[in-house]
């Protein structure tokens, strides 16, 4: 490892920017990725995820800004001298070499000692030691993916970059590999930066997620934070579904603002004192009084509407309810064997605990990107 910058610490992106001609692919982002954490860059196609990774890896020169590991600025360090390894979506294993040699490649090139031991330990980590003498062409997609991972991990980089590494796998294998990846990251304690446009993948694996849109980081937080307290309409709808209501603050009650909207009056925790704002609530936080059989609690938010669609999905029933204002919102209700179901055409009262509402800025004129490949869950 003599020529390499062998150091530890947080990965820091400082005002990191990439322009291609007059197009801004990455717009001066600032991020600190704690050492040893599992970090996800989540966003739709074209938002700048790969470009960001490539600048960290040294495969793309930033237009401006810096990449640091610990206190060391590696912005101008050659790719192979960075304490960074990358696993791409296409695994690019060497087809003529067996699995053992594929994993040993980086160690041999550096003249590292103890190659046998390091390779076999890493193959055990990905649970493929028994296939060490096979060629890549004799492995399944998921197995090849694990070898690609082993080949990167064996070098013990401070930072491992993963660019949609599970993109080529079918759904079941993908879920399996997500669990594997998370286990491996916990075991080896390296910093993982995982790029994906799959919100479920990011939520289930990462300690921290940066949600990207149009070259900027819209919000940074734990999966729970981002889901329960999205700060923008974009985040509220990219991670799961949200019903949002625009209104004006007409009074306050402690930490809650009272919002007057076209659909009714609602309470939402907010520090904002007056003016226009919006409120969001997740479909699964809403209840239908007619099916739960409960009376609406005194300080719950509530609204009346008509069921226009009811889809039974097994885990839940997903209702579409048209409100008096004419707009339609989603309500997910858990399926309990003896529960009553609402039918299309039923008049219903929806209610939810005001603490489940989250504050948002007034609805923007939509600038968010859309991505057809990101379907609703
Ligand atoms: N070499 C290049 N020259 C010009 N434009 C580029 C170049 N590389 C990327 N871009 C543009 O920069 C933007 C960001 O690209 P990037 O590959 O980072 O997106 P991404 O978030 O990884 O998307 P995906 O999920 O589709 O992989 C895109 O609009 C892309 O067309
Ligand atoms: Mg990409």
Describe this structure in words.
The chain is an alpha+beta fold and 377 residues long. It has two domains: 11-228, P-loop containing nucleotide triphosphate hydrolases (Rossmann fold), CATH 3.40.50.300; 241-360, OB fold (Dihydrolipoamide Acetyltransferase, E2P) (Beta Barrel), CATH 2.40.50.140. It is built from nine helices and 20 strands. The chain has helices at residues 49-57, 99-110, 115-125, 141-153, 171-188, 199-205, 223-228, 233-238, 289-292, and strands at 11-20, 23-33, 38-42, 64-69, 72-73, 84-87, 159-163, 191-196, 208-213, 216-221, 243-253, 256-261, 264-269, 275-281, 287-288, 301-312, 316-323, 328-334, 347-352, 358-360. It has a six-stranded mixed sheet, with helices on both faces. Strands 13-12-11-14-20 form a five-stranded antiparallel sheet, with no helix packed on it. Helix 3 crosses helix 4 (141-153). The longest helix has 18 residues, at 171-188. Magnesium ion (MG) is lined by residues 49-50. The site of magnesium ion has 2 residues, from helix 1.
CATH topology of the largest domain, what is it called?
Rossmann fold
In the CATH hierarchy, the architecture of the largest domain is 3-Layer(aba) Sandwich
Give helix % range. Answer: 10-25%
Structural class: alpha+beta
By CATH, the superfamily of the largest domain comes out as P-loop containing nucleotide triphosphate hydrolases
Beta content comes to: 25-35%
The number of E-state strands comes to: 20
- What's the SSE pattern? EEEHEEEHHHEHEHEEHHEEEEEHEEEEE
The CATH C-level class name of the largest domain: Alpha Beta
Largest sheet: 6 strands, mixed
């Amino acid at each position: 490892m003599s020529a390499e910058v062998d150091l530890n610490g947080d990965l820091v992106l400082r005002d990191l920017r990439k322009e291609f001609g007059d197009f801004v692919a990455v717009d001066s982002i600032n991020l600190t990725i704690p050492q040893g954490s599992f970090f996800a860059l989540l966003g739709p196609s074209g938002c700048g995820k790969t470009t960001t990774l490539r600048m960290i890896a040294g495969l793309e020169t930033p237009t401006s800004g810096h990449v640091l590991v610990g206190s060391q600025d590696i912005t101008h360090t050659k790719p192979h001298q960075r304490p960074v390894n990358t696993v791409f979506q296409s695994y690019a294993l060497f087809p003529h070499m067996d699995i053992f040699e594929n994993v040993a490649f980086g160690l041999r090139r550096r003249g590292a000692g103890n190659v046998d031991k390091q390779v076999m330990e890493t193959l055990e980590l990905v649970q493929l030691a028994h296939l060490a003498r096979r060629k890549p062409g004799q492995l399944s997609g998921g197995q090849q993916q694990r070898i690609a991972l082993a080949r990167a991990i064996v070098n013990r980089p401070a930072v491992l970059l993963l660019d949609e590494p599970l993109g080529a796998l079918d759904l079941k294998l993908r879920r399996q590999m997500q669990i594997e990846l998370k286990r491996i990251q916990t075991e080896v304690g390296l910093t993982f930066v995982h790029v994906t446009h799959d919100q479920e993948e990011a939520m289930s694996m990462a300690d921290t997620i940066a949600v990207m849109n149009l070259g900027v980081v819209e919000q940074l937080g734990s999966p729970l934070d981002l889901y329960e307290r999205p700060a923008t309409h974009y985040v509220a709808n990219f991670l799961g579904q949200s019903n949002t209501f625009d209104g004006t603050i007409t009074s306050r009650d402690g930490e809650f603002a009272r919002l007057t909207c076209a659909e009714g009056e609602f309470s939402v925790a907010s520090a904002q004192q007056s003016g226009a704002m919006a409120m969001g609530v997740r479909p699964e936080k809403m209840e239908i009084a007619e099916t739960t059989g409960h009376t609406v609690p005194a300080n719950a938010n509530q609204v009346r509407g008509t069921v226009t669609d009811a889809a039974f999905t097994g885990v839940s029933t997903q209702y579409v309810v048209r409100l008096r204002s004419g707009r339609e919102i989603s309500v997910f209700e858990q399926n309990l064997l003896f529960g009553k179901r609402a039918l299309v055409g039923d008049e219903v009262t929806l209610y939810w605990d005001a603490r489940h509402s989250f504050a948002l800025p007034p609805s923007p004129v939509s600038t968010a990107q859309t991505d057809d490949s990101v379907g609703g869950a």
